[in-house]
Amino acid sequence: MEYRRMGKTGLQLSALSFGSWVTFARQTDDHTNERLMMQAYDAGVNFFDNAEVYSAGLSEEMMGRVLKKVNWDRSSYVLSSKAYFGWKGEDKKPNQHGLSRKHLMEACEEALQRLQVEYLDLYYCHRPDRNVPIEEVVRTMNTLIQQGKIFYWGTSEWSAAEIMEAHMVARDLGLEGPSVEQPEYNLFNRMKMEVDYEPIFRNVGMGTTIWSPLASGILTGKYNDGIPEGSRMSLEGYEWLKERAVVEDKLSRVKALGDFAHELGVSLPTLSIAWCLSNPNVTTAILGATRESQLTENLKALEVLPLITAEVKERIDVIMGTKPVVIRN
Amino acid sequence: MEYRRMGKTGLQLSALSFGSWVTFARQTDDHTNERLMMQAYDAGVNFFDNAEVYSAGLSEEMMGRVLKKVNWDRSSYVLSSKAYFGWKGEDKKPNQHGLSRKHLMEACEEALQRLQVEYLDLYYCHRPDRNVPIEEVVRTMNTLIQQGKIFYWGTSEWSAAEIMEAHMVARDLGLEGPSVEQPEYNLFNRMKMEVDYEPIFRNVGMGTTIWSPLASGILTGKYNDGIPEGSRMSLEGYEWLKERAVVEDKLSRVKALGDFAHELGVSLPTLSIAWCLSNPNVTTAILGATRESQLTENLKALEVLPLITAEVKERIDVIMGTKPVVIRN
Amino acid sequence: MEYRRMGKTGLQLSALSFGSWVTFARQTDDHTNERLMMQAYDAGVNFFDNAEVYSAGLSEEMMGRVLKKVNWDRSSYVLSSKAYFGWKGEDKKPNQHGLSRKHLMEACEEALQRLQVEYLDLYYCHRPDRNVPIEEVVRTMNTLIQQGKIFYWGTSEWSAAEIMEAHMVARDLGLEGPSVEQPEYNLFNRMKMEVDYEPIFRNVGMGTTIWSPLASGILTGKYNDGIPEGSRMSLEGYEWLKERAVVEDKLSRVKALGDFAHELGVSLPTLSIAWCLSNPNVTTAILGATRESQLTENLKALEVLPLITAEVKERIDVIMGTKPVVIRN
Amino acid sequence: MEYRRMGKTGLQLSALSFGSWVTFARQTDDHTNERLMMQAYDAGVNFFDNAEVYSAGLSEEMMGRVLKKVNWDRSSYVLSSKAYFGWKGEDKKPNQHGLSRKHLMEACEEALQRLQVEYLDLYYCHRPDRNVPIEEVVRTMNTLIQQGKIFYWGTSEWSAAEIMEAHMVARDLGLEGPSVEQPEYNLFNRMKMEVDYEPIFRNVGMGTTIWSPLASGILTGKYNDGIPEGSRMSLEGYEWLKERAVVEDKLSRVKALGDFAHELGVSLPTLSIAWCLSNPNVTTAILGATRESQLTENLKALEVLPLITAEVKERIDVIMGTKPVVIRN
């Protein structure tokens, strides 16, 4: 396994990491999760990603039970959670979501209980919240650090300007700014990582724990022949993915990329994941999995990584046509 | 229920909230309180206001017992208390009241015990204390936030200058200033909310949890025919209200306002409460109640709110004659 | 009882307070102490002063046992201790005294255990320690405040320059400076209170909890006929007091003051204590006592206070000849 | 025993101190360690040095068991540990070493558990870690101080520039910089202590707890006739010492120094240790020991110290030829 420093911090994350996201609790059971997490851990994965919203807290509870059972040394892995959406689904009340101090403090305590641990290594603001001053967020995250409940804090899907405002406020108050961002990044979604965040990577330093490296599964190629029943794309509550994903145009480009992967002698998903990792600003790509074979396949991305030369990248850019073009006058 | 952000913070309060004030313990019992609080909660009220001085701590103890029994999710409601007057009545000793660090620290701990909770969402300085430097207050409130015992701190009946001094001291020390004020506000008492605090609302941001929207009951119209025995106005220890309230002149204006309410097809108290809520700087109006029918009636104020147009406001100003006039040369 | 604000803080101390000093444990037993402390408390005394060095920790243990037994409301009294000399007597080792962070942190924890309380209201540096940077002292005292173990910190017998350095360091770091000093102050020892600290009282604000208002007992007049066996002056370990105290010259001035007290119709000790209290920069005068009759007598000083007019003060200055003369060119 | 202030802090360390280093757990058992530690303590040694890496945590566990058994007053001794190398040997994973917040926080907690104490007096960064921003280290060490887990923090084998960067960052953030460094210092290794750190000693203040005053045993003279089996130099894992130490040239100088020691009437190791202590910037020299006779001998260095006159120092410089020469143009 390759390990990368999370931005400017001293924390090291495995280049491939394990996310429970939607798959936990909805599609898998404790026994499956235990086998998947052990497989990942044995392969050198040290970052296990979670959030209060994933399956409404059930995902954290499942992971907590597995962590308790496998009893790995707490210092051997990095555990995260995220606050924003709350975990109470439709019934949630006004302060049971968002980034107010009330929710951040309560959500962190609740996540610690669900995960059955004493502290989180990473704690994310799962989305920006325009109804909360960034100063309130920065102060609260620093209070949590001082109380020993979290070690580092980060953002997810924040704009570059919002991240920089957090740094500005933190510096002004002598507090600690966010050190990691969790954006979507894949061959269909490149703007934030390659354009928006570029000055932050260069001037401030920031780790990224990217999600959806396979673009919700499109880049596995499995939808090339239509969306099967029981796959993630057909699950209730994720219809929004469907619309976006099933665009004909996208599927044709995925097919062409599949041909190129074949030419290179590798699989389409490993090529897609390896391409993400070839961006030096990616600290880790979060993998989801419901089957051991799937995880085995995706973990091979690190073997594919050396193949992603400048030339290969150019070929991929041509095939996909998704390279951001920035015109500055 | 409508929810409003408390000033610039991320906390959201229901526009109508529940205060135990004088009614708890003196006029009601646990069973009544439980029914009233459940009624409020079911109607969407999420802010329950209290203070050490209300019935000398008994009010907090009653509310604590009810909260324990109903067992609502702690994150679903906002709980407050206030320090200043102490709770030991006539026997209280020098440091058992006021805003010294000693009283603030001890009073907060005592309130947590009486309310049987681990933290307060809001903690107020119930009055200004000219014998304590504002720096001591700001530092202590921030210590309580760092210790996780309170989430936000505020003031009650402080002057605009005192509030601004707290912000000045907080900014100088990199600490957190007060984010909410609890003033009296009603059709007889408008100066602070509409004139004094105006620059604070505009330039710094501040939530308000107003008390006495019915001016100690005058605006219910129930004193129009004299003060009945057993009503709040005749209770021992509240004679000061009597003097002020029973002014003939006021009662005549209340009658006229009652006629106008009738004209609008609404009740006098709901019109009076809705008028308070029509001020966008009001976060929430605190309602007291001893009977379910009373609470049912007052909670209708939100339905009346849309009727409070600019034209209606002008009519009310003319009837009441209490609109502040500020002459600046 | 009269209560005074401790300098600029919000804390109020009774003008007369109770110190266990040398008398506890050496000359009295638990039963006596309990009666004396109850007598003081019932008379309105709210400040009970202690230190690790008093009878090598035994004084704190005794007071702790009494406080536990009488079970007064913790908020009704102010409790202090002081670190510097250590409590282990001759056997104490290098870091078991002084003002290093190690000793301050350990001494505070030990004092809390001996006194059986969760926090001290006041914690003093019992002497300056030129071997410890004042920054280390200021940081440690602020850490103890943040941890909730102490509420205010102060100094004892520090020079004006040392106190001001502590304020300078505190302001530079945004931390809290010392708010109270415990100096010796009596008719024989006036320089610090009346000259040295004057700019601090005027420009920064500082409370004082003065010790030895009767100049180790000389001002009781009891040594006018020689030092009796069993009195504090003859106790082992306090020979240093003997030398200073038994100066013939002093005793003659004490006799003259006694005559003047007789003329005013009051006792010599009450006049001496009341004179201390007539200085508005004195927050409280600490009284020691081994007998109830002695405490009864000294508590009368407050009744004598109104007699200390400007004219009486001048008479006393002439009799004693101890008024500081400051010549500034 | 002589005690010295640790740099500018208020902490006092015995000039000779006890290090468990490699000898604990590998060459000694609990019974031996108990006798050695008691011997040192009885001789006035108050500093017991340890680190997570020493025998992979076993050294701390052994010392913890002894400390528990002998039950010395916790305030009578100074205890240290160090984070960086981890303690899990070959199996350690990415974040189980280094100076990231994750490792510092976890390593401190683990050290407290192994040593069975509530706090460490000193906590060192065992080496610089170029993969962690110094700001992260400074912030984390200050968090540990605020949490009461450590009293002072320091560095070991950091360069002067790295130490100064830590001070710069600390001052910028109002936090506490490192107050002690643990460098190697002996007659073969003088550059850091005598040249590199000189401006820090002069302008900032820094204590030093030097290790290897006998240059891994060469200066005992025991290797003059070859390296015996069972000595520290032949132990597995310390081959690197062998190479450096067995240089013929060094041994010849050691022999000449031995003759000079004989001339002075003292032993070679006591002369070598005393020479270290004659540098006023040395707070303490850490001694390792496996036998009581060895410790008895080395503790005599303080008696030898008065012999280290300026003249003797010059003689030693000529014999050893290791005095740093700094040419500044």
Keywords:
homotetramer, 329 residues, alpha/beta, TIM Barrel, 8-stranded parallel beta barrel, two-stranded antiparallel ribbon, 14 helices, globular, oxidoreductase (chains A, B, C, D), NAD(P)_OxRdtase_dom_sf (chains A, B, C, D), NADP_OxRdtase_dom (chains A, B, C, D), NADP (chains A, B, C, D)
Structure description:
The structure is a homotetramer of 329-residue chains. The first copy, chain A, has 329 residues and is of the alpha/beta class. Chain A has a domain at 3-215 and 279-289: NADP-dependent oxidoreductase domain (TIM Barrel), CATH 3.20.20. In chain A, 43% of the residues lie in helices and 12% in strands. Chain A has an eight-stranded parallel β-barrel with strand order 3-4-5-6-7-8-9-10, surrounded by four helices. Chain A has a two-stranded antiparallel ribbon with strand order 1-2. In chain A, strand 6 (120-125), helix 5 and strand 7 form a beta-alpha-beta unit. Chain A starts with a strand and ends in a 9-residue tail after the last helix. The relative contact order of chain A is 0.13. The interface between A and B is medium-sized, with 26 and 23 residues.
